[in-house]
Every structure is written in C-alpha cells, then in structure tokens.
Amino acid sequence: WAKAEGRDRWAVYDPERSARDLARSELAAGLPAALDRGEFVLHYQPIVSLLDGRMLAVEALVRWQHPHLGLVGPDRFIGLAEETGLIVRLGEWVLRQACRDAQRWHTEFPDAGLVVSVNLAARQADRPAIVDTVADALASSGLPAELLQLELTESAVMGSAGEPLRTLHRLAALGVRLAVDDFGTGYSNLAYLRRLPITCLKLAGPFVEGIRGTAPADADHRDERIVDALVRLAHALELWVTAEAVETEAQAERLRALRCDTAQGRLFGPPGPAETVVARLRGDGPR
Ligand code: C2E
Ligand code: MG
Ligand code: MG
Ligand code: MG
C-alpha cells in the first residue's frame, strides 16, 4: 500500500515524472539485490556460418528473471547498470557464467569448437583489472582462451588511447578474440581500426534490416551498398564479419552474395536457455 500511495504522490507532486521513469528507478534500485539473489540468467543465440549453416559461436545475452515482471530484457536494465556502476559486477557474473557453460559444451562436444561471445560494457573494458578478471574466468572454468570472444562497442574501443589500448592488447595477448559490436552505428576511427587487436566486426542490425532484396522501399540498395563496403573493409583488414539481426532468407541470400562470413538473427535461431545450445550441438552432429 505504501508503495502504491508513494506512486500516486509522485504523480501529484511531480507530474513531469512519467510512470516509466519511476519504473526505471525501481528497476535500478532492485538490481544489486537481484544479482545477490541470482535472478539473472543467460540466454544464448547461435552465430552461424553463412556457407553451411553450422553453429560456430553463441552470443551470451543476459536476462533478468524478475519475481513480478517475468523475464526482463537487457535493453531495460543494462543502461541502468552502467549508470550505477553495477555493470562491473553484473558483467563479471555474465563472463564467469558464460565461460562455465561454454566449458561444459566444450567437454561434451570437443569437436564443435564452439566459441562463446560475451558483451563487455565500456565501463568494464575501460578498467585495466578486466584483464585479470578475464584470465581468472578462463582459468577457473578451464575454457580455452580461443573459445572466448569479447564484444566491445565502437565507442569503447575507438576512443581508447594509451591505457585502454594497452588493456585491449593485453586482452588479445590472453588469446581471446575481440569483436566490435554494432559496427557502423557509432563513431569509427578507421585509422584506429587497423591498430586494434580485433578479429571480428559485427554489422549492426539496421544495415541488415535495410537489405530487403526486391522491396521497393530499398530501390536504391543503399544499405546493401553499405554492407558491401563494410564487408570489403573487414576482409581487407583480415577480420571476420558477422551480420546481426538476420530475419529473412532473402537477407541471408544477399549477405552470402556479399561474401559475409557469419550471421546471427531470428532466421537462424532466437536467443534461448543453455539447453537449447546443447540440443543444437547434438543436432549438428560430427563435423
Ligand atoms: P547486442 O549485443 O547487439 O545483441 C543483439 C541483440 O539483437 C539481442 O537483443 C538479440 O536478442 C537481438 N536479436 C537477435 N536476433 C534478432 C533479429 O533477428 N532481429 C532483431 N531486430 N534483433 C535480434 P537483446 O538480447 O535484447 O540484447 C540487447 C543488447 O543488450 C545487446 O545488444 C547488448 O548490447 C546488451 N547486452 C545483452 N547482454 C549483455 C551483457 O551481458 N553485458 C552487456 N554489457 N550488454 C549486454
Ligand atoms: Mg531485446
Ligand atoms: Mg553483442
Ligand atoms: Mg550487436
């Protein structure tokens, strides 16, 4: 009751404050306890070869199993966790859990060579201590370093000079893969790109969305030409390319024609609990 009353008062005294903002601050306040209570779960989405459809990697995507709201997506709380600084602790949990899961898969399906890809927030990647955290997550799980990929955003890697750049090089020296996430949506410094120890570019969903084959809205094929250029850029730098948010066979067909290597999206499977990865590894069979 007190809570409901408080909510009404907010509405009376501060009409500008939307119900959404209130929900936001309530969510933010609940995050630390949620982490302590173990309410976060990881779902995994396949990243497949566009040549033969084989699952090469899975991306770990965090969800909050909220006691009242149900499964809450990261878009609703990752930003909050970044603002409050909790992302460092939450991100470390994600990293360790993903490494443990991946090591189990690696033990059961050693020939699959399945890579687990983990998102790092700028606030995590910025801290030199991230190198020890990653090294420890690998050592304590037993996961080989080459089966871990870390996804960083353009802003996290391109702005980095001095210490942050050294941190990226130290991460790469561990043997893990580094990918630039949502490539093309931030500010990319191309001169910088060639100096970064990265192995993969992930093409942002909006470009892929624009690839609609013969749809009249895409008559000038602008997004397609951007994707074409970005794939060429990546290959010139000897980087892998993963297209994100691939939803239709027509998009996959175009991406194949543009020589894009790998893809992720609803067409190839939505994010799902760890069991769905095991089921798929079984189905993929021996290589
Ligand atoms: P992202 O890293 O770019 O992850 C891809 C997002 O695209 C995921 O949303 C995924 O569910 C969604 N997606 C998958 N297939 C499709 C598709 O066919 N079409 C479209 N339109 N979208 C698709 P999700 O799981 O809601 O995650 C959103 C963002 O939250 C992620 O974007 C990432 O930036 C962030 N995030 C998720 N987990 C973590 C984490 O553990 N740590 C950090 N720092 N950020 C995370
Ligand atoms: Mg979402
Ligand atoms: Mg990502
Ligand atoms: Mg992305």
TrEMBL record:
Coiled coil: none annotated. Residues 24-285 form the EAL domain. This is GGDEF domain-containing protein. It comes from Micromonospora sediminimaris.
